[in-house]
Design a protein that fits this description.
Elements lengths: L2 H78 L12 H8 L16 H9 L5 H5 L3 H11 L11 H9 L3 H8 L2 E2 L2 E2 L2
Antiparallel strand pairs: 1-2
Length: 190
């Protein structure tokens, strides 16, 4: 066999491969350049998006803080302008007992869903001895009394206690009983 018979096709193949590579490079070079440019632009856009994301997170935190402040101010405003309970609402033990199916004693704080004997003692020690007094007490003050009593009492949520006492002081026994049936430990389920 002839050495040139092998060498000539190999050289021709290499030359064709090189020409093909060069022609393909020329044909796809604009596409490759565009992809490289797009990739660089994506990197720039990614950085812009990360900066924007950080900015949004900061804005969200600022809005949360502002919301907390406004909520606190609203609660203070609401508590300062709470309507006073009428003075002349007589206690009707018969009606109260018939609704609750047990003897009800006037100003017994244990009528409130969520208040037991120990918590009643805490409120008595804090000077809150009547339904009217607890109805006029802010939820924040109720929490403060519980917090000062120790870890054991911090689990209680007094959010509804003033309103329950308001209903008791007004003699709205049926309304109080119906509402208490929807409460769990003095808490409204969401």
């Amino acid at each position: 066999m002839c050495f040139l018979c092998i060498l000539i096709p190999v050289v021709v193949g290499l030359v064709c491969a090189l020409l093909g590579y060069m022609l393909a490079g020329m044909k796809y070079k604009p596409i490759i350049n565009k992809l490289n440019d797009d990739l660089a632009a994506c990197g720039s856009e990614k950085q812009d998006l990360l900066t924007l994301n950080t900015s949004f997170k900061n804005d969200i935190e600022a809005l949360k803080n502002k919301y907390s402040i406004l909520e606190s101010e609203f609660n203070d405003y609401r508590l300062n302008f709470k309507a006073a309970l009428p003075e002349n609402v007589p206690f009707d033990p018969v009606l109260a007992s018939s609704v609750f199916k047990r003897k009800i004693v006037e100003d017994d704080l244990k009528i409130v869903e969520g208040i037991g004997p120990k918590i009643e003692e805490l409120f008595h020690a804090a000077g809150i001895r009547t339904w009217r007094a607890l109805a006029a007490t802010s939820v924040e003050r109720c929490r403060q009394i519980l917090d000062e009593a120790g870890e054991r009492y911090r689990i209680h949520k007094p959010d509804t206690w003033p309103k329950q006492c308001e209903l008791a002081a007004l003699g709205k026994w049926n309304e109080l009983k119906e509402w208490q049936e929807t409460l769990t430990g003095g808490r409204e389920e969401i």
